[in-house]
Structures are given as C-alpha cells and as structure tokens.
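Exercise 7.
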Amino acid sequence: MSDVTEDNHPKGGRPRVRMTGKERRQQLLDVGRTLFAERGFEATSIEEIAARAGVSKPVVYEHFGGKEGLYAVVVDREMRRLLERVTTALTAGHPRELLEQAALALLTYIEDESDGFQILIRDSPVASTSGTFSSLIGDIASQVEYILGGQFKARGYDAKLAGLYSQALVGMVALTGQWWLDERRPRRDEVAAHLVNLAWNGLSHLDKKPALRVPR
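Solution. The predicted structure, written as tokens, is:
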C-alpha cells in the first residue's frame, strides 16, 4: 500500500515523496534510528520524526502505533544485526582465534554502525528483558560458551565453567567497545589485538582450581 495522504504538504511545506507502505516504513525506521542515536528515546519526539521524514504524525502512528513502537522495532533490528554479525564470525575451533573473531566482529560493527550501537547501549524505558544490550551480550556469550565448553573438556578443565568464562570474555569485549565508541583510538585491529592479548595470556595459564590469595 502507499501513504493515502502522501501528495499533500505536511507542516513545513515540503511535498511528500510517493512511497509504498514498505518503503515508507523503512524510511521511518532509518529516520528514527538516526534521531534515537543522536538524542536518545526521551528527547526524540513524534513531531521531529515526522518532520524529518516529510510526513504527518498520523503516518508514523499508522505504521508503528507511536514512538515506543518505532523504537522497539529499531532496537530489535539492531540486536539481530549485531548478533548475526558476531555469531557468523565465530568459525574457529581454537579459543584464541575465537577471541579474535568475536572482538573484531563487535568492533567492526561499532565502526560501521555507530548509530546502531549507540542505540543499543542506551538505557530505554521501553526495552523488554529480551530487548536490552545485556540480553544481547548473553546471546553472544551462549555461542561462545558452546565452543569454550569443548575446549575446556579437552584440556581437563571443568566444562560447567564455560558459561562463566564466556560471559566474562564477551563482557570484556563489549565494555571495551563502549569505551572505543567515543575514543576511536587506537585503531580497531590494535584494540582487538590488545583484548586478545589480555584474555589469551590469562586463559593460556589458567589454574584448574583457582583460589583467592587475599584473606577475607
């Protein structure tokens, strides 16, 4: 379908571009993504979204039911995009190569899709438990856990701890990625190399039964 009022002039004087319903929905998603990244959910208004898209407010409501609906779709799309990028990259069987692949995939996403990552790491009043950055990290860690479990078992470590280590490793990369989003120095590959250096030099000399040395 196409926008029924698309040939009228919205407030601001610009004529609407004729689009199919699918094209208009995609346009609104792109506009919303940009504004939510720039301003955050609370500071972005339906009026601003409509004005940037060159449509009236009812068109936004027709497609998404409101700002919350648009935001939820934007977040879901970014989560799927990042998860697919990271999990597709995890092809190695060796833990060190796995770490390199995960770190590079996340940092590459941040570099290529800064707006999307900015949206994911913001706190949102409309994000559900299945639509938060922490839940996304959990999904990625589950992929890493499967591979680490096999490596732990082969090396005589307790495979039940693979989940703990996968959360720690993926969390380390994700938090560094948040810092790098603003810093952008050193270069992406150098950041990934330092992450792997820290993680691998620790992993390669793990105690099978670690204990705290500081008295409690």
